[in-house]
Give the backbone structure.
Amino acid sequence: MSVTAIAERFLNDKPFEHRCHNGTIFRADRSDFVGGVDVYFPARLCEMKRLQDVAEMTYFHTQNIIPRLNGYMGIGVEYRIHRV
């Protein structure tokens, strides 16, 4: 298998975006969250709905993205919160 084929199997340097059921959007330049994650909460979203969206994104990332990363520390991720 070529180096290119191996690199294409992994998502580390691919952009990540997930729109949650309650409208929150999570965006990162890299799927391994190096460089941080921008979180866009709808302005009027209550705390319970924000927490639901965080749980939804975390589950999605854990089940669908992490298995396709070439190593994932998962610690020290910077989350930048925005209200839109």
In short: Residues 3-83 form one domain.
